[in-house]
Amino acid sequence: MVSTQETRQTVEKVGSDYKYGFITDIEMVKAPKGLNEDVIRFISAKKQEPEWLLDWRLKAYRKWIKMEEPEWALLKYKKPDFQEIYYYAAPKSADDRPKSLDEVDPELLRTYEKLGISLQEQEVLAGVAVDVVFDSVSVATTFRKTLKEKGVIFCSISEAARDYPDLMRKYLGSVVPAADNFYAALNSAVFTDGTFVYIPKGVRCPMELSTYFRINEANTGQFERTLIIADDESYVSYLEGCTAPMRDENQLHAAVVEIIVLEEAEVKYSTVQNWYPGDKDGKGGIYNFVTKRAACRGTNSKVSWTQVETGSAITWKYPSCILQGDGSIGEFYSVAITNNFQQADTGTKMIHIGKNTSSTIISKGISAGKAQNTYRGLVRVLPNAENTRNFTQCDSLLIGDECGAHTVPYIETKNPTAQVEHEATTSKISEEQLFYCLQRGLDVEESVSLIVNGFCKEVMQQLPMEFAVEAQKLLGISLEGSVG
Amino acid sequence: MLEIKNLHVEVDGQKILKGLNLKINAGEVHAIMGPNGAGKSTLSYAICGKEGYEITEGSIFFKGKNILELEANERAGEGIFLGFQYPVEIPGVSNMNFLKAAINSIRKYRGEDEMAAVDFLKLIRAKAAELEMDPEMLKRAVNVGFSGGEKKRNEMVQMAMLDPIFSVLDETDSGLDIDALRIVADGINKMRSPEKAILVITHYQRLLDYVVPDFVHVLSNGKIVKSGDKELAHQLEKEGYAVLGIDENAA
Ligand SMILES: Nc1ncnc2c1ncn2[C@@H]1O[C@H](COP(=O)(O)OP(=O)(O)OP(=O)(O)O)[C@@H](O)[C@H]1O
Ligand SMILES: [Mg+2]
């Protein structure tokens, strides 16, 4: 039939359809290839870090070399050779970090224009403050002044290490300890840049904060570290976006995000992850090994993770909530799409420690092509956590016969008053649904996009407006050619 | 407008339509009746281009175009609409968004601009009112949790919105209460015009009392075995298919 042939052509096109796959030609400063204590010293010196931070890194490194790469995830991949990676790459011009946008290398600004992110404050993202991380360094942070007036600190983590040592020493590694797991330990040793946010007591952050991560250099790992502290009764909504060029070799991205939420405070953290997924034959793509964790330390503190994961060859990621304060709330809304040879093992951990804590998990996994998609989630209720509640819903959608969806829920309750509910469904895009849409005039791609967006609605609704539209389109693009 | 010649259709290797001929001119309303399993829905799918309905012989021309070369969505773009016997549920997609996407896709196919949001809202409110559908239903997910009758009425709202040139209505009357049948029939009659044509598939005379057809055909065992005017439907209602020598149990 005509359609089958055309669909095949579309499928063949997909690999080259990643529109963020270009490379920016810019002069870079790099650390020597491979990892040892000297490289860590090099990074730390480049960033003019205080002594304590170098020590902290070295300690993490010494633990990391004794650790084993985890194997429990449902992922198959060639383990990275950690001596073949560059751990530091920075645009040369960023050696003296620009003080204003006028001083940013125009080539970099053009890169971000191409990515749809205008750093000119008055433009597209007006109303959203942006921190931009290019390979290993933060190259621009916008809206600083407006934020400063409210006492909000929004800067790169390298700057924070120099300018806000007290906050950094107090909180860095307090949620994700340096040797928490293999990738977190690696990150602690070599993290290069990332974002630091502090919202003072009683302040509602006047705008969305956002960080945009971009991997550009070949053979370079990105090890970003983000630290967000929401002091008592404060609120912030933070967005994170990521892209990378198309390259035939795999590239490593191992990030750590720590969030501290104090009394009555709330943090909303949204991610649209669109790292290069590799081509249609599974060649290249980003290895995305990320540790994200939030600690709700005060009464009624609340954290909400929303993620739309469409990119990366491998995704290993479990944004978690430690619900320590009484009455604290953790939420996890996730859409994970895998197509072609992509693999995702993602989910969350909800650790109920305080009384009357509650958590909600809504996970939507979509697999197409030969992809594998696993939800892995843990709900743990500790003995003193009276009257806790959890609701988990995991829905999987399969497109085609060669992909897989797996749900691995772990539930451990040590308190009899806990109410834990788990629902799971697996469905397929049916021929009937597809034909119904086609008969109304939508083409195959539009139909799949519509059906998938409908399937993910509860999660997409959680995204801030600025992101929702982009994310919706992304769902459609990621699945192009997936229906035959 | 629509000319079907010697149509043979197979599904999963099973021959369902076996040399069907049908010609429908602009301005006409045709009714197809016939026992269960005769191939009526199969005919509607073949006209609309459903995947898996293999045309092994014959041709379908619509307004002089060989539509067998077109994808299902392109046929919709040409102005062909199917009111489904079993409308499909699409969770999470509101009726509104679904229709907006449909209208704009068809407009794109025709090289027209997207419909302005205000115009769309006006239009959909008007059409829902004509078909006496509660506007709240427009916000609900497509057909999800709709009753049988509500689904059929929703098909009619979609037809009214998309304003097709040729509509196939597959048992749109089944499952409707008496009032709903009248409302739906009014909706169908509104689509009657000298430039348009309608093919209704039905088991019952009662719809044809409201939507009076120009021609009635009986489909049995993959072929049209008898054609006539509206009197044929009356005759069948009274005497059953046996009078045509058709065994109702063996389609
Ligand atoms: N996938 C399939 N494989 C085999 N036979 C099929 C398949 N789909 C449909 N059929 C058969 O094709 C025949 C025609 O079906 P169709 O739905 O067109 O009948 P119909 O005339 O619309 O019947 P009804 O009045 O009950 O709606 C039936 O015998 C049905 O079982
Ligand atoms: Mg039928």
Q: What does it look like?
A:
The complex is a heterodimer of chains A (484) and B (251). Chain A is of the alpha/beta class. Chain A has helices at 2-14, 37-46, 51-64, 106-114, 144-149, 157-163, 165-171, 182-190, 431-439, 444-455, 457-460, 465-478; strands at 28-30, 89-91, 128-134, 137-141, 153-156, 195-199, 208-214, 225-230, 235-243, 250-253, 256-261, 266-273, 285-296, 302-309, 314-317, 320-323, 329-338, 343-352, 358-368, 372-381, 389-399, 404-413, 419-428. In chain A, the strands form three sheets. In chain A, strands 5, 6, 8, 10, 11, 13, 15, 16, 18, 20 and 22 form an eleven-stranded mixed sheet that branches. In chain A, strands 4-3-7-9-12-14-17-19-21-23 form a ten-stranded mixed sheet. The radius of gyration of chain A is 22 Å and the shape is globular. In chain B, the strands form three sheets. Chain B has a six-stranded mixed sheet with strand order 6-9-10-3-11-12, sandwiched between helices. Chain B is 37% helix and 28% strand. The model of chain B has no long low-confidence stretch (mean pLDDT 93). Chain B starts with a strand and ends in a 12-residue tail after the last helix. The interface between A and B is medium-sized, with 29 and 35 residues. The structure holds adenosine-5'-triphosphate (ATP) and magnesium ion (MG). Magnesium ion binds at residues 40-41, 85, 170 of chain B.
Keywords:
heterodimer, A: 484 residues, alpha/beta, B: alpha/beta, Rossmann fold, six-stranded mixed beta sheet, 9 helices, binds adenosine-5'-triphosphate
